[in-house]
């Protein structure tokens, strides 16, 4: 559905500036974001002190982004955090944590996009073995944090406009999760003009809306490299 012309955007909303991070700093930022963007269920509160100490050494603006969210989470009850997560990511179309949704929406193209994520993991020597779809942002961020393959960076770069749409949508509703996604965007290279145009188009138009079934994908969800068990305690590289 198109927005009324008078409120359509012709520039990117509040873009973030990219910061230069070392590989280890990027690993820490992406693993911390992966953990914080998962459903805040059992163990979430006990992980927060480890995440907080890990991100403290990151460049100032990124550390501040994480601290802003952690301060918010610490002040909320576990039930309130869970309700906030569901209200933010499950009920708002432009606050979707599945990266391929922004470009493909609920169309036939999304099935192909999901297979591309699986192939990217395998090309880097990983097997996706989880109850989530392979484009789930926390899973992609964990892949970036734990993999030494350049494929991980390429996978995020290929969906940068979706990340920026997510960031802008969270910022627009004043969600505390905007700070976490902002930290991720700061950790990535500056976006080029072509990406800016795709981002602006997605902000204005939203994802495609042709609805189709994706049952042939099966139940996928957190992946781990062959023989490695995924743990929530691994924040530092």
UniProtKB/TrEMBL annotation:
Pfam families: Nitrate_red_del. The keyword Translocase does not apply. It comes from Agromyces humatus. The keyword Repeat does not apply. This is Nitrate reductase molybdenum cofactor assembly chaperone. SUPFAM superfamilies: TorD-like. Keywords: Nitrate assimilation. InterPro entries: DMSO/NO3_reduct_chaperone, NO3_reductase_chaperone_NarJ, TorD-like_sf.
